[in-house]
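anyone seen this seq b4? input:
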Amino acid sequence: MACSHSQSLVVLIILPMWMNLLLRTLAMLSLMDDSGLINAGLQALGLGPVKMVGTDGAVLAGLVYNYLPFMVLPIYSVLKKMDMSVVEAAEDLGANPLRVITRVVLPMSVPGIVSGITMVFMPAVTSFAIATLLSNGNRKLAGDMIDYIFNSSQNPSRWNIGSAFSLIMLVLILISIGFLRKADPDNEGGGMW
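predicted toks r here
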């Protein structure tokens, strides 16, 4: 029965990923708009409308919504493979639930956490549509800056500058993969690699 619930939760986490990132972001934009569903609910509760679009919170919510599955799935995969007899042994030896989580479950899930961080970091740093749409162009991420340099600048050396920024991003991604390999030498990161 518990396996059925966990599989249902995984399907609910994966389901939005079947839709294009741009469509998911546009859907969030319409939900957070001044006349959107969230503000309609807040007005019904008497909390009044809240300006969400164009804020850092909207960009953060968009990034979390779009990249949460990339973090959850590797952790879920590692936790699913975890030997529950180790948890039972810790409980039998008198560990309270908090100590079981901090001393047993968390250390055993580090490969999934590191894999998830790497999988979220790569697309998040190169993302440009989410910040542009949800901040009304007021906030720029690294991907936005590279896009701007290549497409909007009239500087004749824009290809050189854009390429240099892209190379810096590649180096950062390679460094994060190096940390993954160091923290997960046995490649147990949820089977994602």
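The chain has a mean pLDDT of 83. Residues 54-183 form a domain with the MetI-like fold fold (CATH 1.10.3720.10). kinda curious what u guys think
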